[in-house]
User: What shape does this take?
Amino acid sequence: MISLLTKAADEIEVDKKQALRFMGCKQEIISEDFDELYNECLELYLASADLKAVVRKTDVSFQDGNKIKFDFGTIESESLKKNLRGCKSAYVFAATAGSEVDRQIKKLSVMSDGKAMILSCIASSGIECWCDFINDEMARNKVLRPRFSPGYGDVSLCVQKDIFDFLDVNRKLGMSLTEALMMVPVKSVTAIVGIVEENI
Amino acid sequence: MNIRDLLNKRRVYFDGGLGTLLQKRGLKAGELPEMWNITHPEVLTDIHLAYFNAGSNIVCANTFGANSLKYDNLEEIITAAINNVKKAIELFDGDKNECFVAFDMGPLGKMLEPMGDMPFEKAVSLFAESVRLAEKHGADLIVIETMNDCYETKAAVLAAKENSTLPIFVTNVFDEKGKLMTGADAKAMIAMLESLGVDAVGMNCSLGPKQMLERVREYVKYSSLPVIVNPNAGLPRSVDGNTVFDVDAEEFSDVMKEIASLGASILGGCCGTTPEYIRKTVEKTKDLPFIPTEKKNYTLVSSYTHAVEISDEPVLIGERINPTGKKRFRQALLENDIDYIVSEGITQQEKGAHILDVNVGLPEINEDEMLVSSVKALQEVIDLPLQIDTVKASSMEKAMRIYNGKPLINSVNGKKESMDSVLPLVKKYGGALIALTIDENGIPETAEGRCEIAKKIIDECKKYGIDKKDIIVDPLAMAVSSDESSGRVTLEAVQLIKEKLGVKTSLGVSNISFGLPNRPAVNSIFLSMAFEKGLNCAIMNPGSAEMMQSYHTFRALKGFDKGCAAYIDFASRITLKADSAACVGAADNENGDGLQYFIIKGLKEKAYDNAKELLKTMKPLDIINGHIVPALDVVGKRFEEKTMYLPQLLMSAEAAGRAFDAVKSGLSTGKAQSKGRIIIATVKGDIHDIGKNIVRVLLENYGYEVIDLGKDVPPELIVEKAKSEKAHLVGLSALMTTTVEAMAETIKLLKKECPDVVTMVGGAVLTESYADMIGADHYAKDAMGAVRIAGLVLKG
Assistant: This one.
């Protein structure tokens, strides 16, 4: 069973501190001029982002060596095995801020690379906050492990293909993978979240 | 009987869901459903037969994902899939004449360029391969369904049109806000698909029937084609680990009855629906009176998000993307500076244009290529419909083909040669058409004469099946300074053509004032007069405050502007402009050195205005050395000291760039001395380019000439450019571990082909040691690092 979650962009608050960190800024030195610029880009983000996600549960079982079996396939990874230690099941999710944000970043970059960078960092923070929200939803009555995305540690990006099929993300979220296994829209995340304990 | 004939006679029924039924029969998660055509033909035939028995006329073969991206044995799969439906028809007891096999074509699962990496023509050829097999093996129609992107929909339709004569049905997936995943609304899809000449349009999947009601109303209102509605059985939820849908057959069919009475004439189901849902829908709707589809008269053009309706409320077509009389624009075309072209588009959008004219013809350049790359770049970021403006048929065809929507075509005229070359293109690719009232005998001197030519063009269009509603006649405003009757005759022609021929009209307004002083005054008054005569489209410069004033005033006075809101907004922005000019002066006085301040603060337009002001009293080089360079030094220093951060640095760099633009016009050479030429690119496979863009901006500001090859650039192209541009330094960017390999490959090829070229690399995943490992000469930790490396490599 794949569950679909959607939110309007303004329903999920963007962590400004995190966005500034992505830009390499410290909050204490931000000037008023810069704040104005930040708010202008934040408005653009809120007008263009369309938050969507799909979540599906999978069984988890550990096999020889570092092999971990999921409903969507097998992953060989030491770091993921460590992350999922003791888990019998896990959530797999894909989340996106939608294609319009990508377009707006591209559009801004024609007029101002500075603004494009600010918008890009706001969108990165926005999608992280969206993932945090999804995490909180999944964590009701449960103990979960920190989310683990393909590409972290020794997990190859190749597993994205299986995860994309498993979650039917192309149909449900309009996401797809490029030949080099990058996600489109760019402001997207996939992750595995181990379930340690249920019904607490 | 042909399905096209049946559509005119009565309501037609599709089948329902297939996936959920296959899962019930044992299809496992992760298993490819199309393989079951070969391994479990009896199951498929059984399900297809159940749908025919329930009353379906059109049953889709199990070919949703049947394309050569997924299958090596495509022909075997398609043959088996079609045969399974044919077998069901054989076994069916009822009227076999009203049973049809549809070849079902879903999305490729890849996002098209520029958002993704699938080229448009590659998508067309993948669909084409499946279409040819479908027709060869006896499908009765092509059903293009579950499409969530406008561009991919167009690719599929073109493939179907070019490779078969079968009827084409198209359904898109709208979310609750009424949009496709990539942003198109219903009106945009209807405009494009009708114009491409498909047989039926509609929606499927994602929503239950109730949530589709609003969309159905919209389709029925705007579509001249029969409307298809194939909803899901509501929304899925989990019960005891099984997926169930929350709308049962009873409720589903009740809503389908409502949908039928709204005028949708092709009904079926999607995910979660079963033969029971279809049977009940047929039962409840078969005795409802059939409403034949009526022809609609909306004049629509569309972009990848929305349609612009050309009606009594005037539409503004921005004319600035055009080299005629514009030195800077000609230069951009000669230098292949697509960003400049796009920025002209963005500015016009911000000023209020509804459609953008795109004319990039220059004798010195390859117009085919330039028009295609301009249209691609514009539609990547600007959601306004485009007006493709060229006299070259080959350029027009190429641009129309890759256009994402229904374009406006500028133009056809009454000459036989023009009609013979343009009209077949409109027939094939779709579009609305600007028709100029000129023919072999020139432009008639009377309104009646121009009306005659318009009629001739309309009649010729009819032969091609191009509807009158898609023709917009331009009776050609000529300079009143050389013929004093020109204004009067043109205005009369606008009125006469509208009244007599019932078509929309357009004018290139500012021609009227050619040769006169104070042209804006003449243009704006003429525009008001033309609007009053019923002009629908004005091709003009939306940056002209006078003409925009006429436009906004006209709308307010004619009752198009509720509460005069747009007029008030426009009027308040005009005042703002005066304020900001005052502000420039004030800041200047306070600081004594305005330009440096504006650059450090990253205030682009103020920096530009100030530099222009300084030019009156200072030499260009003194402004550069005395103001721009010191400001950049301050910014660079603060950045190194971490009291200023990257976005601020970039804003300052942009402000310096604008100031430099202002000063450049005063330099005799037109160009400042370059410190050296650098090629930069994001490597093949990588679609992230913000980091690379930042490096470009900084390098340019430090006086280097940068040739930016963009993102996802193959090694061969980088090598070719390094050779042809004689660049000594090549900067490569990669953000993902997977694409560092492409970086290594590029460096290897560069070392082999151009041993003198120095390479520098950067990007999120790279480290000094990683850079060493792949053979790069330099590693740039950040953008300032790249500047330092350029300083080292290109000194003297």
Observations:
- The domain at 3-197 of chain A is CATH 3.40.109.40 (NADH Oxidase).
- Chain A touches chain B through 55 residues (CB under 8 Å).
- DSSP finds seven helices and ten strands in chain A.
